[in-house]
Amino acid sequence: NSDIIRAKFIEFCNFRIYDDSYSSSPEAVLSVLKNLKNQSQSVSCVLGDMLELGEKAEELHKRIGKAAYEYGYRKIYTFGEFSDFIKEGAITAGMNKKDILINYDINSPSVTAKMILENASLGETILIKASNSVKAYRIIDFLKTMQ
Asked: Is 120 helix (H, G, I), strand (E, B) or coil?
């Protein structure tokens, strides 16, 4: 599967990023959420907008928020216009709203990078997953300059 080849771990001082930011679909997000949780004790995720979902966008973003909580993700960082739906799914499933950090503005990836630096725990793995046109990889670029 070429998707798996493209995704990669990037080590930082106190945590690591699993960069899977080149594309996204509901099925791909759910799969990587499950698989990454099975590989790491402490995980959080940056969930950006999944685009081109039409009228199902709200429901599908709620579903990934719910899944992130149910798989045991410590924090959810949202990135984009669909942030409230991800948040709603996670809270409905039982997540504490203080564990959801929101950045609606995809033109400000540095805001999410700063949130990660302020909240990541030692040894944690943080997934970054979004549609390619959201350009979530810019969050990683900022993390590299900020640490």
From this structure: coil
Q: What are the tokens at 64?
A: 């990934």
Check pLDDT > 70 for residue 76.
yes
> For the chain, how long is the longest CA-to-CA vector?
41
Task: Please compute, for residue 121, the number of CA atoms within 13 A of its CA located in the half-sphere on the CB side.
Answer: 11
**Residue 47, exposed/middle/buried by CB under 10 A (0-12, 13-18, 19+)?**
buried
Closest CA to 128 of 68, 38, 85: 68
Residue-level pLDDT at 126: 95
SS3 76: strand
Q: pTM of the prediction?
A: 0.92
